[in-house]
Amino acid sequence: MTLGQFLSILKARWWVPLLILLGTVGLTLGASLLMTKQYKAQASVVIDFKPDPISAALYGSGASPTMMSTQVDIIKSDRVAQRVVRNLKLADNPQIRQQWRDEALGQGTIESWLGTVFQRNMDVEPSRESSVITISYKAADPRFAAGLANAFVQAYIDTTLELRVDPARLYSSFFETRSGEAREALERAQSKLSKFQQEKGIIASDERLDVENARLNELSSQFTTLQAISAESSSRQTQAQGAQGDRLQEVLNNPIIGALKADINRGEAALQQMGTRLGDSHPQVLEARANVAELRARLEAETIKVTGGVAVSNTINRGRQAEVKGSLEAQRDKVLRMKAVRDEGLVLMREIDNAQRTYDAILQRFTQTSLESQTTQSNVNMLTQAVPPIEPATPRLLLNTLLALLVGLLLAVMVTLFLELRDRRVRTVEDLVATLGLPVIGSLPKPGSKLSLGGRTSYLQQQLLQPLPQPAKGG
């Protein structure tokens, strides 16, 4: 269908779309005028997602993406609606209670019934790019609408405060009990360590252990030195008891033995001269030989005496070595016992440290939750308070009229086309060609129309003769 055909249909049936359009607009205006006026009051709140100083250690510094949706769900919840009923004390109104009995037949609670009624006319709109939430309420009375909007805001603020305070109170009670148990555990650990120190006589275990370790190191050094000295003295004693005893350093360095050896050398030299000169049987030779023999006996006695001192020195060194070794073993056992005692004490001290840390952590959480349970400030604050609106929100005459015009036009066009399809008529040249399937030779003007014969050609002259269709071959 072309635009010309469509316009010709509307022109021919102009009364149909006109009636439909006027009827639609009239019905809409009448319904809008008969509708009860509804006033919409709006209040807004702002949510502070920054943590307060008390809960800064427990919560993050930013809001999660679902925080605003969660707040909207809280406002729309039955808990907030029923709190509105309790705050306004509407459940005590006899008329409202009678209305509840008539409509709800006394089923459920009046708070739940009223909350459901209020939720139908309440709307929540969160801001997309800020933390502001707008709460609106519609009612026939503008003051009632403003009062309910403000009541929902106050109920929401009170509910958010309860949602923070109630869990904090439960946590505070829990951590209070746990802190008492942790304190008892800490006291038991401290008492156990004190008893252990008293039993072992420990005052400053680390300092005493350092002293004993130093003494152990000193004894170990002395024992090593005495081992070397004892080994040397034992070797010298073996040498003294053998055939080379006269070669000992003590023997060689002894002045008496040196003097005796010199006297023996002089006596032997004199004996040899006298024996050569006087003969072996001469009394002087015999006397000189006796003197040399006496010197040798004295030398041997003195050598035995000196080598005997080496044996005594070796015995003394061995005794000192055995004594130091015993002291070293005793000191080693003492240090080992002290280390064992210290390790046991360290275990007890670690138990005290663990108990102290646990108690401190629980006490910190108890302090935080105790402060949170006593807070009276919510993170939701009223931004704007609802006031009674002057103009009604519904019905909107201008908007309803524009919508009625749009709907009426669409309905008029649809009904007109439907009627035309049921009773199709030839209204244009295109309709004639489509109906008969024959070309149009010309068209006559309507009766009463004037022909233009001047510089313009007539409508009849403007029609071009269409070529006649050629007959089919063999027809």
SSE topology sketch:
Elements: H1 3-12, H2 15-34, E1 39-47, H3 67-75, H4 78-88, H5 94-104, H6 110-120, E2 122-126, E3 132-139, H7 142-200, H8 205-241, H9 249-253, H10 255-278, H11 283-373, E4 380-384, H12 397-422, H13 429-436, H14 459-462
* Oligomeric state of the chains present here: single chain
Q: For the CA atoms, what is the radius of gyration?
A: 64 Å
For the largest beta-sheet, the strand count, sense and barrel status come to: 4 strands, antiparallel
Q: What shape does the CA trace take? A: elongated
What does the model show?
This protein is mainly α and 475 residues long. Among the domains are: 1-35 and 395-467, no CATH class; 205-352, Helix Hairpins (Orthogonal Bundle). Helix content is 69%, strand content 6%. It has 14 helices and four strands. The protein has helices at residues 3-12, 15-34, 67-75, 78-88, 94-104, 110-120, 142-200, 205-241, 249-253, 255-278, 283-373, 397-422, 429-436, 459-462, and strands at 39-47, 122-126, 132-139, 380-384. It has a four-stranded antiparallel sheet. The protein is elongated. The two termini are 35 Å apart.
